[in-house]
């Protein structure tokens, strides 16, 4: 391929496909284009298939931009390259491996911070600061994994992890044991040592019980999986080229996880040390880069030509960097950074205001004078959300005195991410219940706002331990069969008596339902005596090799060619064998998913079954405190005669035995209690249950954005906020609809597209994702603007105590604050405006020390 537009350093990064590479790329040096060209060159040179290339970056927005650039350069094959955020990649790994290597539900969903906070709040008996407890739980989870404490006794592991943390790094715990105003909270620090491990273990159990994982689980579960050598080797063999962008934001823990799959891949790590602004979340780039250079001996390539800024802006920002970090800049960028643009550019404007009001007024009138048509090309950056809110309020007051056509269109992106806003989460809660019928957190959210006649008291009663012992969950009140029969297990028991249960399991070439193929399928029809009445077991020929999955099921490609039958014939026969029955399996959603996918690929009709039950779910309900719920362990617990071996029929027989155990020991004995509990409250859920059933039926044919429109109108979410005069919330719902339509992959089945959309919104980690299409002036923190660029940028609040913040000097984090300032001043393409005020909240302030390092020849005072 020809890359005539690239400069020599960029071209070297694109054309060198043999060495590992450390690509140092300061702001504006064409990093994204360079990486896209490199991937296009790999494909053109046939050095790898698209699926053998992994590209990791920091935000969903960066993922989209990277994917678009790759497709632009490489064509349609570029769509098959795996471009993910780190959390998104961990999600893929866990989703792929959950069935075989854990007792996580294969249909797990990710719970965001707000939903997890609700679970924690419910577990706490006293009024502790919930966000601090959430942070402490995350710390314990990471420590448990880092220390290799992965026994079946989570509480004991957490106790050991906490003791070791307190012995080796007590400051890490103290730093998180804070009040809501981030002051050290001694009582919490001491109390956490007493009940912290118990709360963490109970939180895990509660989350997993409703088929959920949190963001920290994505990291620790991925690390636990990669700690198993065979899994790490399998993933290492999958990728021939691995590119990691924004490496300066990668934490040591994240790097440790990724390094397990580096294998013999060609590696490229790309970043800019001076844009490290996430030390508070564990990023220490010098540690990561030192490990990378020590272990992988990369060739260092430095991009030194800036394509974003004018001569003035680049000279000023680079001079500021040299003044602030002289030795490190000389070491990393000895040749400096040069502006490609021939435009000299306008000077940086600095305003020192007497008061906050004067500063805000100055910004407003300066923006009015700018030669812009699209106000989305202007941005206001600050250090804190509080400053943003104060500016927004002042701008609104200024606009009130102007004619409507003269008012500036501002958009405040506060500390709430778009997908975490109340009204957005309301609509998404309904979608989550479609994908995960066990999502009690989403159901409770819906009840709190739209459950007529269902208050917190009712929810507490249904969540009582007596209901749990009987096997009732609050989500059962939405189950059509449970509502019709008065018992969520009635259909299972009826089918058992009628000898109409089919227990089944599959083995496959891998564990990706959309790509892998079934190589063995087994099922048995269960008699009322608990023994097999009829059996079905077949091997299937496959187009794909079994690869490393041979180590699990011991079925070879040679065996399949010798004894396997044609997939169409086998699957048609199995569908006839199981037609109309109740399906049972252990973590059965995976088996149903890969069966459904393969039937669709073969052009066969879907399996017609009455409903399914999952023995993993049954045992989590009745035995929540078991060390684990893997089939092997449950087999020992129930003293089954068939051991689970990853032969499909052995696993089916083991599953059948534990099912009979549960029916006789737990399901039948509590039937009367369940009926009483269902009858007591069922009527109050009628209206909502009807809506949810309707939404679930439509989800298989409607696109996600169409389903959203139906929810907002049919449930009356828009009407709810209209009656309260909250027009902005209605506009946010419209924005959610627009985003869902823009993101929809029309080639995916509606339900698959819905799952992808929900994964995206849960893992979305920047507010800028929600504002890229609006012609409004964003007021954002520097952290929120990471990776973005604008024509005109205003950096406000540049006084001591605000930027840098008061805590920076106390916490010895001034260098991080300085790098944050550098990120801010490298966002503009045309002109930069800096401002500070001498009085704030009634106190006198001083100009930020960061302004003193700007060369005066590039600055114009106002």
TrEMBL record:
PROSITE patterns: UVRD_HELICASE_ATP_BIND, UVRD_HELICASE_CTER
Keyword ATP-binding: yes
Single biological process term from Gene Ontology: recombinational repair
Residue ranges of every copy of the UvrD-like helicase ATP-binding domain listed in the record: 4-310
CDD domains: DEDDh, DEXQc_UvrD
Coiled-coil residue spans: none
GO cellular component: cytosol; DNA helicase complex
GO MF annotation terms: 3'-5' DNA helicase activity; ATP binding; ATP hydrolysis activity; DNA binding; exonuclease activity
EC number per UniProt: 5.6.2.4
Signal peptide (from-to): none
Keyword entries, A-Z: ATP-binding, DNA-binding, Exonuclease, Helicase, Hydrolase, Isomerase, Nuclease, Nucleotide-binding
Broad EC category: isomerase
Residues annotated as domain UvrD-like helicase C-terminal: 316-787
Reactions that this protein is recorded to catalyse: Couples ATP hydrolysis with the unwinding of duplex DNA by translocating in the 3'-5' direction; ATP + H2O = ADP + phosphate + H(+)
Amino-acid positions noted as binding ATP in the UniProt annotation, renumbered to this chain: 25-32
Family the UniProt entry places it in: Belongs to the helicase family. UvrD subfamily.
The protein, known as: DNA 3'-5' helicase
Protein's organism: Mitsuokella jalaludinii
């Amino acid at each position: 391929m020809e890359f005539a537009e690239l400069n020599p350093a960029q071209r070297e990064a694109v054309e060198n496909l043999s060495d590992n590479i450390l690509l140092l790329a300061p702001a504006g040096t064409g990093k994204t284009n360079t990486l896209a060209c490199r991937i296009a060159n790999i494909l053109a040179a046939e050095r790898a298939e698209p699926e053998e290339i992994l590209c990791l970056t920091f935000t969903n927005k960066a993922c989209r931009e990277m994917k678009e650039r790759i497709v632009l350069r490489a064509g349609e094959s570029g769509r098959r390259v795996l471009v993910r955020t780190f959390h998104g990649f961990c999600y893929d790994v866990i989703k792929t491996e959950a069935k075989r290597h854990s007792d996580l539900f294969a249909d797990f969903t990710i719970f965001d911070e707000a939903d997890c906070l609700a679970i924690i709040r419910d577990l706490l008996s006293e009024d502790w600061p919930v966000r601090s407890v959430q942070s402490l739980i995350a710390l314990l989870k990471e420590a448990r994994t880092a220390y290799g404490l992965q026994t079946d006794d989570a509480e004991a592991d957490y106790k050991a992890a906490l003791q070791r943390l307190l012995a080796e790094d007590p400051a890490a715990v103290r730093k998180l044991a804070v009040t809501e105003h981030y002051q050290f909270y001694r009582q919490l620090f001491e109390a956490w040592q007493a009940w912290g491990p118990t709360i963490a273990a109970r939180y895990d159990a509660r989350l997993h019980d409703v088929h959920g994982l949190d963001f920290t689980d994505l990291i620790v579960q991925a690390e636990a999986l990669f700690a198993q050598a065979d899994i790490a080797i399998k993933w290492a063999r999958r990728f021939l080229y691995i590119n990691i962008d924004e490496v300066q934001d990668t934490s040591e823990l994240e790097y440790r996880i990724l390094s397990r799959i580096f294998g013999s891949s060609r590696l490229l790590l790309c970043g800019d040390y001076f844009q490290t602004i996430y030390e508070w979340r564990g990023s220490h780039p010098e540690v990561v880069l030192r490990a990378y250079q020590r272990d992988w001996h990369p060739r260092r390539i430095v991009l030194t030509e800036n394509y974003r800024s004018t001569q003035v802006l680049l000279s000023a920002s680079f001079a500021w960097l040299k003044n602030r970090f002289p030795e490190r800049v000389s070491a990393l960028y000895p040749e400096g950074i040069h502006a490609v643009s021939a435009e000299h550019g306008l000077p940086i404007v600095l305003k020192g205001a007497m008061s906050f009001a004067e500063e805000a007024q100055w910004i407003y009138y300066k923006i009015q004078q700018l030669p812009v048509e699209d106000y989305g090309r202007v941005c206001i950056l600050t250090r804190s959300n509080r400053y943003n809110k104060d500016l927004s309020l002042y701008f609104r007051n200024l606009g009130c005195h102007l004619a409507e056509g003269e008012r500036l269109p501002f958009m405040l992106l506060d500390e709430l991410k778009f997908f975490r806003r109340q009204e957005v989460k309301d609509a998404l809660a309904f979608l989550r219940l479609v994908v995960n019928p066990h999502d009690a957190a989403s159901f409770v959210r819906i009840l709190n706002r739209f459950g007529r006649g269902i208050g917190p008291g009712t929810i507490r009663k249904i969540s009582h331990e007596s209901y749990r012992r009987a096997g009732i969950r609050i989500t059962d009140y939405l189950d059509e069969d449970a509502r019709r029969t008065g018992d969520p297990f009635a259909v299972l028991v009826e089918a058992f008596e009628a000898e109409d249960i089919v227990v089944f399991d599959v083995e496959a070439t891998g564990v990706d339902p959309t790509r892998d193929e079934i190589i063995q399928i087994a099922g048995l029809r269960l008699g009322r005596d608990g023994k097999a009445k009829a059996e079905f077991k077949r091997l299937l020929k496959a187009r794909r090799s079994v690869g490393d999955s041979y180590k699990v099921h011991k079925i070879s490609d040679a065996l399949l060619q010798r004894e396997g039958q044609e997939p169409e014939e086998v699957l048609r026969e199995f569908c006839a064998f199981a037609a109309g029955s109740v399906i049972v399996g252990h973590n059965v959603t995976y088996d149903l998913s890969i069966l459904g996918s393969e039937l669709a690929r073969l052009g066969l009709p879907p399996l017609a079954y009455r409903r399914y039950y999952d023995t993993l779910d049954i045992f989590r309900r009745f035995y929540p405190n078991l060390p684990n719920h893997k089939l092997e362990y449950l087999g020992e617990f129930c003293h089954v005669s068939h051991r689970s071996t990853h032969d499909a029929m052995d696993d089916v027989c083991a599953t059948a035995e534990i099912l009979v155990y549960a029916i006789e020991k737990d399901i039948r004995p509590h039937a009367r209690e369940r009926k009483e509990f269902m009858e007591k409250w069922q009527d109050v859920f009628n209206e909502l249950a009807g809506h949810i059933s309707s939404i679930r039926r439509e989800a298989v044919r409607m696109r996600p954005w169409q389903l959203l429109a139906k929810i907002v109108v049919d449930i009356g979410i828009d009407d709810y906020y209209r009656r309260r005069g909250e027009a902005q919330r209605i506009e946010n719902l419209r924005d959610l609809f627009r985003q869902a339509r823009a993101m929809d992959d029309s080639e995916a089945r509606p339900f698959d597209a819905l799952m992808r959309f929900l994964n995206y919104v849960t893992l979305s980690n920047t507010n800028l994702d929600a504002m890229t299409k609006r012609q409004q002036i964003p007021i954002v923190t520097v952290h929120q603007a990471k990776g973005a660029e604008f024509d005109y940028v205003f950096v406000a609040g540049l006084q001591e105590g605000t930027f840098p913040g008061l805590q920076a000097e106390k916490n010895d984090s001034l260098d991080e604050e300085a790098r944050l300032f550098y990120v801010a001043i490298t966002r503009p393409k045309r002109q930069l405006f800096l401002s500070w005020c001498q009085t704030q909240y009634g106190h006198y302030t001083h100009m930020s020390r960061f302004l003193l390092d700007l060369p005066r020849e590039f600055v114009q005072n106002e």
